Amino acid sequence: MGTQDYKTKKVISIGTVSELTGLSVRQIRYYEERKLVFPERTENGTRKFSFQDIEILNDIANKREEGVQTYEIRQEMLKENKNRNDLHRKMLKGQINAHFNLRN
């Protein structure tokens, strides 16, 4: 297991997430419905969250306190993911070009 794996491993119950974030279980479920956080489900349907999910929920809570709507938060998250994917793609392309001595 890598050093960052613990942050993404989905092992934390919704009750514990509620305690750690100060959000109600209802709020956490609402943010899941709004596609802002994506817990895994056990065979019996229990939600399991990661430490990374907790960080995301804390960020959402702070933005909501500032008056940012969930739709705006979702759009920002999608934009960040696209930028991250574009950067990753450019890095891979650069590595491939360097490996094969290609020029653009």
From TrEMBL:
Keywords: DNA-binding, Repressor, Transcription, Transcription regulation. PROSITE patterns: HTH_MERR_2 (PS50937). The keyword Transcription regulation applies. This is Transcriptional regulator. GO terms for molecular function: DNA binding; DNA-binding transcription factor activity. InterPro entries: DNA-bd_dom_put_sf (IPR009061), MerR-type_HTH_dom (IPR000551), MerR_fam (IPR047057). Residues 11-79 form the HTH merR-type domain. Pfam families: MerR_1 (PF13411). It comes from Melghiribacillus thermohalophilus. Coiled coil: none annotated.
